[in-house]
Amino acid sequence: MKSDRIFALFLATYLSLALLGKFAFKSYLGELNLSALLYALTFSLTLFLGYNSEKRFNLPFERAYVYLILSILVSSAAGILGVVAVLTVLFGGMLILRRSVDGYYKHAYYAGIALVVILPLLAMCKGVIPILNPQTRYSDLKDLYLASALFASFLLAYKPSLIVFLVGEAFAVVSTFRSNALIIFLAYLFRAEKKELKRLLIIGVPLVGLAFLARFYATKSVYSIWKLGFAQSLVYRAGFSYMVYEKLFSLGMPVGKFGLLLNPNAREYVAALFGKANNYTYTIFGQPAYDLGIFGLFEAFLMGVALRDSERLPAFKALSLTFLILAIENGFDALNFGILMVSAYFALFLSKDIATIGGIENAC
What we know:
Layout: H1 3-24, H2 26-29, H3 34-51, H4 60-76, H5 80-97, H6 104-125, H7 142-158, H8 162-175, H9 178-191, H10 194-222, H11 230-252, H12 266-273, H13 283-292, H14 296-310, H15 314-330, H16 334-351, H17 360-363
Helix pairs in contact: 1-11, 1-15, 3-14, 4-5, 4-16, 5-7, 5-16, 6-7, 6-8, 7-8, 7-9, 7-15, 8-9, 8-10, 9-10, 9-15, 11-13, 13-14, 14-15, 14-16, 15-16
């Protein structure tokens, strides 16, 4: 299935849940902002327009350099984790390019597996075990669980492995962060061979469901006044993130305030706009609307073009789809934006050499 159809399915599902949440919890989430809804729909259509514009916008090498520059500039704003993530994708692309030339690929892959295991174990040794003590999910060491999930998703995009998937998902469940479980599952889903899909769905869907349940019970443990059930919580969460987007839309129009994409603490910044000290997610529309206002539609077009370019090679298609889908509810930040850009860059960079370097398409 083409990337735009997969993304459209996830986007439509989220928007349906978000609008349901807005109507079901109107007293908490406020009235629906029709102008914000029109912007969200226009943004979505513009993204798909960008995806389907390749024949009318055929400057592959120029685009590759734009992606590389953006990935370096934006990911650096995410701090050390963003820089390491983008460098890992770049390094992975270089290894794919030289896979048939030297033996570094195998060693690097095993090093990646070691990081998937060691990083969360370090957090656990320091007492940060959110599934047992939900309060610790707000510790700075929670980023070790995120880093583990990132490395697991990179490894699965480059080379599908059931063992890496299971290990990564186990630590994601311990972290109680649904996004950690989701990126690991999606990376494997989009990279697995057809013969693996049935096994993946049988094993993977319950594991992701378990991560969602772990987050639900962590929320109930931390917030004693939480009265919503599991299904209600999912709908409310979708509606709440959409409500945050509506706030950002109101603040950013018409020309934007540019304070999110290059902010290393974007979700804390958004929460502060509401007078809170939490981390607020703000949907895929929130960052473009707040940073660029109406000009955020150009960012949507770029996202669509980048998604189409990353589709040239399976490994980078998997990475781009994974982190673009993650942004649907979480919103764009320096980390997932940088990964999308560097994936599109390497897909273009490698695909232009396929005719002269044997085996690259099969390698990735």
